[in-house]
Amino acid sequence: MITLYKFPKRGRQILPLLFSILLFLTACVAKDKQDKNLPRTYAVFIEGEEPVLGYNDERYTQFREQNILVTNSGKIVAIVQGRNASRWSDRSGQDLVCKISDDHGISWSDPIMMATDGEKSICPNAAVYDREKGRIICLYSVFQWPFTDAESRKTWEGLKNREYSIHSDDEGLTWSEPREITHTAKADSVVQVYGSGEGIQLKSGPNKGRLVVPGGDFVAPHKRVFAWYSDDHGETWKSSEVVPNPHERLTPCENAIAELSDGSLLMNERNSGIGQRWQSRSHDGGLTWDTFEMAPDLPSISCNASIITVDYKKQELLLYAGPVGPNPNVKNVLEEYQGKKLSSQDKRQNGVVFASMDGGKTWQHRKLIVPDLFAYSSLMQLADGKIGLFYEARDHKDIMLVKFTVDWLFEENITN
After folding, report:
1. 120: which of 109, 310, 328, 365 is 20 to 30 A away, CA to CA?
2. What is the pLDDT of residues 333-343, one digit of tens each?
3. CA-to-CA distance for 234 and 217, rounded, in angstroms?
4. pTM reported for the whole predicted model
5. Other beta carbons less than 10 A from residue 37's beta carbon
């Protein structure tokens, strides 16, 4: 006969606590086991912990839409929007702040205020680094109505947003006064979009040195996609032709651009809902673009993403990073998620890196890198040779960095 030990009354009272501790420790061990093969993650901006204040000396509730640049000296400059709380988060009290890292992203400076406009909202923005001049240029829009009265946008008269440019010649330590460039807009009374994300400087061909920034504008009932470019180191800006869009869809404009070894440019663009990413190519340095085509290998749940070109074993390699939703192995998000009610958190999770060896025609290689909430991202090759993937974490509150090597990306057969 088996005799069961009977805990005294006091012991029975602590059993639930002991059980909870055991579950916690088991979960920690399981998480360590699950994450042991993932690259290390570093904090860049953490909501509630940064010594920088926004409108009315309030702490920012979000750090969003990062732009990442690596300077000639190898320093990383991370530019973000600091957002105050608002009923409409995309028109909250938004300022531009940046941090600098001189050890490849391991540690960061205190935040540096770049631009602020009181109750007006700075959004969206894009930055580009001119390596020939050693200058960081940031383009941004300012919504003219006060974020403290969101309804006033409906009755606002005149231009709803104005455009500005600022620059830094000392790797982000100090910034120029804003210079208005509203006259470069394609039309009056529409919202211009810069980015959201980094621009590029062309490295070869007849347009070598040209600065190209992704963007578009909002013209009811549709949104248009194009690129901004400058051939005089950011003194003047022009917009390319609108990317032909045969689908008459509401395009969110946000896109990323990479330069390929044959001199062409590849634009990878966010879709307006659950579906695949869209791509277009330019063969004249970003002045005109081919008609958008679907990228069948890139599942998307309507979120900004990032692409870069890197050299890998003497071969051109394109990398793309973005969230794929609740199923990290999903291939066709329409089949997987259509008809299902997915919240922003449901959709913007599981950050996956995709690789293409044929200039973006196919994206057959993929690997899960962030099995957690994952929104806007920025891929950047760092001075230590590693790839830095910066992303919005914790439901758009923080900016995190995960570093990896391309070898890590191909350690396994990642065609799932």
Report:
1. 109
2. 989 998 888 88
3. 20
4. 0.89
5. 9
